[in-house]
Amino acid sequence: RLGAGGGGDTAAVAEGCVASLRLLARAPAARLPSLGRAAEAWLQASLAAGALSPEMGEECLTLTRVAELEGSRPLQNLAWRFLKLLCLDAACDAAVSRVA
């Protein structure tokens, strides 16, 4: 378990989330459905653990920009889903929302 009292490393969860979002945005060859699901799982785990950072918002926005530039509807859908997950979660603070 992660988070308060769970003994997990919330920083590692946040870093995993950022790394998976970064990979989706910057490595077209890695854009497999499994990576999209993994990135979503990392994001959900980060939200559940309260391990959020402005960097997550930045990476979600980068992914959105890349998807729009490439005109990739599936990638756009994924990026917008991540933004909604991040910004609409009760654990998302003002600093993260401002960036995203």
Low-pLDDT stretches are: 1-7
Structural class category: mainly alpha
The number of E-state strands comes to 0
**How are helices and strands ordered from N to C?**
HHHHH
Provide the β-strand percentage band. Answer: under 5%
Helix share bin:
over 70%
Question: Roughly how many Å apart are the termini?
Answer: 27 Å
Mean pLDDT: 85
Tell me the Rg in angstroms.
13 Å
The tally of helices reads 5
Tell me, briefly, the overall form. globular
| Main beta sheet strand tally, sense and closure | none
Q: What do you see in this structure?
A:
This protein is mainly α. Helix content is 73%, strand content 0%. It is built from five helices and no strands. Helix 1 packs parallel to helix 3 (54-70) and helix 2 packs parallel to helix 4 (73-88). It starts with 9 loop residues before the first helix and ends with a helix.
